[in-house]
């Protein structure tokens, strides 16, 4: 029986759900891959850190955080140190990076990933910042180190997006991508169309746990910019950052514009777009008018969609309906299975 040691950076919503899923699937992983998948280190910002190279009691660690909001500082596994020191002390084979997104610079997540790859660890991340800002560099670093760098859950959670290209659509060239990639702005648009004001729509999005206390990253397009950037970098071999994305806030859509579009048989959706042009890949996030019968008009609430324009397989659209945290955790778990298959 082999052992695969994971360490986690970030133990918030995603980290905890991934832990629960791992506990549920540990036996299946053992039977299927003849591998004991254990967690030997966890670091975050305010919950404390844990290290035990022989394997943490993940069920107990999860229970501590869920009952007291932090790891027990009196635990023999309690660890004082930076996330980098945790990675070294944990002697893990894989970093599972699930820290908070910084859309403005992809840091410190990208630094954690660089450190892990340089130490010879594989990396799985839920964070789209590093791929939006430093994809090529991180990919090359992983290739030089002969290690896996996996990120399936960064766009549409566990919906196959990047695996679709590597495993199934191989041989195609993608000339364009469109999508509705941000649930909050899509939800707000729908409520505006139903006659609510901006403040009412944003409050409703917050009430169902969709929008952050500060919803501007979603509403002003930066979350969508990071996602379409990461997609263009990974799927279209672009070398762009969120600074290169033409972004227009969804706040530019008024009730009058929505009513006018409706009268003309159109709808307005908040579209992320990447297009191959003679001058390279051009990327935008802005409200666009579409015919009312367009498939995207049926994508509402927290649902999301993307379309790939390929040279051989044609135009392909995937809709993800009402995703939850389990789907995000599945994206990480799916990367773990990819890793186990490859190594
Ligand atoms: N939630 C989703 O549906 C979803 C879907 C796809 C991808 N993602 C991505 O998954 C990641 C985690 O999301 P989440 O919802 O779990 O967020 P979250 O609940 O806010 O948890 C973030 C975790 O990161 C830790 N952290 C924050 N800053 C850090 C730093 N500088 N160094 C080390 N750890 C740090 C936090 O520690 P403290 O708790 O101690 O502050 C917390 O444990 C994000 O990158 C997000 O974009 C989320």
Describe the structure.
It is a single chain. 41% of the residues lie in helices and 23% in strands. With 343 residues, the chain is α/β, with parallel strands linked by helices. The strands form two sheets. A seven-stranded mixed β-sheet has the order 4-3-2-1-5-6-7, with helices on both faces. Helix 1 (13-33) runs parallel beside helix 12, helix 5 packs parallel to helix 10 and helix 7 packs across helix 8. The two termini are 14 Å apart. NADP nicotinamide-adenine-dinucleotide phosphate binds at residues 9-15, 43-47, 83, 98-101, 108, 126-127, 153, 157, 325, 328.
Question: Which descriptors apply to this entry?
Answer:
Dihydrodipicolinate Reductase, domain 2, 343 residues, alpha/beta, 7-stranded mixed beta sheet, Rossmann fold, globular, 6-stranded mixed beta sheet, binds NADP nicotinamide-adenine-dinucleotide phosphate, 13 strands, 2 domains
């Amino acid at each position: 029986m082999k052992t695969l040691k994971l360490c986690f950076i970030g133990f918030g919503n995603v980290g905890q759900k991934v832990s629960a899923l791992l506990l549920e699937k540990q036996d299946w992983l053992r039977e299927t891959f003849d591998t004991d998948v254990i967690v030997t280190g966890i670091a975050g910002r305010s919950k404390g850190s844990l290290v035990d190279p022989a394997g943490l009691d993940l069920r107990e660690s999860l229970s501590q955080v869920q009952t007291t909001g932090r790891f027990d500082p009196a635990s023999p596994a309690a660890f004082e140190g930076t996330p980098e020191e945790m990675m070294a002390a944990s002697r893990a084979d894989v970093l599972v990076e699930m820290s908070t997104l910084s859309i403005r610079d992809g840091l410190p997540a990208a630094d954690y990933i660089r450190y892990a790859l340089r130490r010879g660890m594989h990396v799985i991340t839920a964070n789209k910042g590093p791929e939006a800002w430093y994809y090529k560099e991180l990919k090359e670093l992983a290739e030089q180190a002969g290690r896996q760098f996996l990120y399936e859950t960064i766009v549409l959670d566990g919906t196959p997006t990047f695996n679709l290209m590597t495993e199934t659509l191989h041989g195609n060239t993608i000339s364009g991508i469109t999508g509705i990639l941000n649930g909050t702005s899509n939800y707000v648009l729908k409520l505006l169309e139903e006659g609510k004001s901006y403040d009412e729509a944003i409050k409703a999005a917050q009430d169902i746990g969709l929008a952050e206390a500060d919803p501007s990253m979603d509403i002003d397009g930066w979350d969508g910019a990071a996602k379409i950037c990461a997609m263009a970098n990974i799927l279209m071999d672009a070398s762009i950052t969120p600074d290169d994305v033409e972004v227009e806030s969804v706040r530019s859509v008024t009730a009058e514009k929505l009513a006018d579009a409706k009268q003309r048989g159109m709808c307005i959706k908040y579209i992320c777009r990447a297009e191959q042009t003679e001058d390279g890949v051009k990327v935008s996030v802005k409200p666009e008018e579409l015919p009312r019968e367009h498939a995207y008009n049926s994508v509402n609430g927290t649902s999301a969609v993307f379309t790939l324009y390929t040279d051989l397989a044609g135009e392909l659209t995937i809709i993800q309906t009402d995703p939850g945290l389990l789907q995000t955790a599945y994206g990480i778990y799916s990367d773990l299975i990819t890793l186990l298959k490859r190594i």
